[in-house]
Write a structure and sequence with these properties.
Order of helices and strands: HHHHHHH
Distance between the termini: 99 Å
Number of helices: 7
Oligomer: single chain
Largest sheet: none
Number of strands: 0
Helix content: over 70%
Strand content: under 5%
Number of domains: 1
């Protein structure tokens, strides 16, 4: 019995240094940590700019789509469509979006991660990336627009063909025959 206890204690003594040397688990980032990161990254103005650019691109693509489909849209109709888009844009709450993003950042980034990112984005290089990001995003969206447009056109053609094919099929629904009369 004493031998078992001695072996057990000896085993614990051997394991103690090994467990003491394992790195501590990093603390989860707090809401305040993430908000501080968002402030350093200037997330709010960046998001406002990206949203405006995105809506402008969507508006331009919608207009092109209408022209390609030869939809007759007058200036009045276009003004109404623009007013609806503007209304939608004004109803988008950046604060709500930021609130939605905080738990996602907390899930994926530890306190150390957030602190290191704050350090980086506080450097001249980090600030340059933040300054240039809106222009890089806008130019990137413009650069990929022709490719997306080509793909959207292909999808539209395929959908149009599917509709034509469906209309050309003979009706396969059986005609209802009258119920037999009871005598």
């Amino acid at each position: 019995m004493k031998r078992c206890i001695a072996t057990f204690v000896f085993g614990l003594l051997l394991l103690a240094p090994a467990s003491a040397q394992s790195p501590p688990i990093d603390a989860q980032s707090s809401r305040e940590d993430v908000i501080r990161l968002f402030d350093v990254m200037q997330i709010r103005p960046q998001m406002e700019l990206v949203m405006r650019q995105m809506f402008q691109q969507m508006r331009a693509m919608s207009r092109e789509e209408m022209k390609d489909r030869k939809v007759q849209v007058g200036p009045e109709d276009m003004a109404k469509a623009d007013a609806v888009a503007d209304k939608i844009m004004k109803e988008v709450s950046i604060s709500d979006i930021i609130d939605d993003m905080v738990p996602v950042y907390q899930k994926h980034l530890s306190k150390t991660d957030v602190d290191e990112m704050i350090k980086f984005y506080s450097t001249p290089t980090g600030q340059k990336i933040l300054r240039e990001m809106p222009a890089m995003t806008a130019e990137g969206m413009q650069a990929m627009q022709p490719r997306l447009r080509k793909q959207m056109d292909q999808i539209s053609r395929e959908i149009d063909q599917m509709i034509k094919d469906e209309k050309a099929k003979p009706s396969t629904t059986p005609h209802a025959s009258p119920a037999p009369k009871k005598s």
